[in-house]
Amino acid sequence: KAGVTQTPRYLIKTRGQQVTLSCSPISGHRSVSWYQQTPGQGLQFLFEYFSETQRNKGNFPGRFSGRQFSNSRSEMNVSTLELGDSALYLCASSSTGTGGETQYFGPGTRLLVL
Amino acid sequence: QQPVQSPQAVILREGEDAVINCSSSKALYSVHWYRQKHGEAPVFLMILLKGGEQKGHEKISASFNEKKQQSSLYLTASQLSYSGTYFCGTGLKGISGGYQKVTFGIGTKLQVIP
Known about the structure:
heterodimer, A: 0% helix, globular, B: mainly beta, six-stranded mixed sheet, five-stranded antiparallel sheet, 0% helix
C-alpha cells in the first residue's frame, strides 16, 4: 500500500499571499487530519475531515481552511499568509478517524513565509 | 487540552534506559506514541486504549494509567536508532462516545550517544 503523500514538499511564499497544500491519504482511509508543527509548539491540530465533512477543528484563525474530496484527498488553504505561518504542515490519515486508530503521517509540506 | 510531556529532553548513552511521561488534565480514551526523526514524518509506535494496558514493541513499551490520566513510554537498553523526538497523543473521551480528536504534546527530544 502506498503511504500518505503530500504536495508540494517545500514552498516559499511572501506575506499576504495564499497557499494550498494537498494530501492524498492511504487507499481506503476516509479520515484526514491536518497538523501544524513548529519547534516551540509541537504538533498543533488544525482540523479533521471525514467523508468530505469537517468533523473537528482546532484553535486556528479562519485564514486556515480545508476541504476533502470524494476520493478522500484533502486540501488545506491558508490565506493572507503571515510570517508566523512558517511551519511544517503534516497530514495524517486513518481508516475512520476514531481515537483508537493508528494515524499514518505524510512527509509534510515545509512552508516558509518571507 | 494539550498533554504535558516530561522530560523535554534527555541524553542517553547506548544501553541506558529512559522513561518519558505524558499526562493530561482530561479523561483519556486513548494514548498514542510516535517517534519523529529529524526531517522525517512521525512514525507510529503504539496505541494504548484501556486503563492499565501495557504494550511492548521490541525494547520499547508503554503503560497507560487511566485513573491518573497518564502514560509512560519505557525505552530499555537504548540504541543509537532510538534518537528522535517522541510525541504522545491523547484521545479525549467524547460526550457520546464518538470521535475523539487526538491532541499531541510538544514532544521529548531523546538523543542516544555512543
